[in-house]
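FORM 7B: Structural annotation worksheet

SECTION A. Query
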Amino acid sequence: MDKIIPFLERLTAVLERIEPLLPPLPKSCDFSKYSAFRWVRSHLGPYGYLEGIDNPTQIDFAAIRCSERQIGIIKANTLQFLEGYPANNVLLTGSKGTGKSSLVKACLTEYQDRGLKLIEIDSDDLPALPSLFKQIENQPYKFIIFCDDLSFEDNDPSYKSLKAILDGSLISPSHNVLIYATSNRRHLLPEYMHDNAKGDEIHTVEAIEEKISLSERFGLWLSFYPFSQKEYLEIVQSWLTRYAPDFDYDEEVKRKALQFSLQRGSRSGRVAEQFVRNHIGEKKIRINA
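SECTION B. Predicted structure
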């Protein structure tokens, strides 16, 4: 007995040191309470859990201007998904600030009453997708996995995890999951001029195809392009009406909006909203001074 007690004490000390290294038990998540979630990574490997978002961003499709074609396509695909019909994973690519992320968030606003849930995951956490799928596969809801600003650098192994999940892995998403991703890069991986030149690679074409193979596994591509001056001003007017319907949209506002875009070097929807926020704030300060 005298020998057992020291042994048990040592065993307890060892277990206390090992316990922090063990994967945590998944936290239970109330899917009926929340419509949006984020994947929270554990500090140990690809483990993590879903955390409900109390006040997710609410964006209406009507607030997204000059993207009617893209809106129609993503609404149709999401409706197919909600009705239980075949639907595609979606890759939204193109210029920054053109409404790619807003379009995905608008899907949640439009269809959350029909059982749609949105889960946001960082591109660094893509290897955890099988674990995430396991947590939601038996839920009576439809889930869109949302990965914003998706891109990979050379020798980044994460893209192979996503490529396998989209098409090619034995571990596939269940019937209640789609993946919507946004990126400024059409092919998600960096491409270089020397990729087209003959070098050490014997099969150059195959090397190039490997780089574009990930984006090809998304069933739908939605492209976004820089706005013209006319479209930019239309978006400014839309945001002004949304934030301050009592404010006039006149030639002075147009001039300031164009000047603001020149200073920023962009005529994106994001810049249009930033101008409107700045314009309203400055005007209200002067009124109340």
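SECTION C. Observations
DSSP finds nine helices and seven strands in the chain. The chain has two domains: 36-224, 229-288.

SECTION D. Sign-off
Analyst initials: ____
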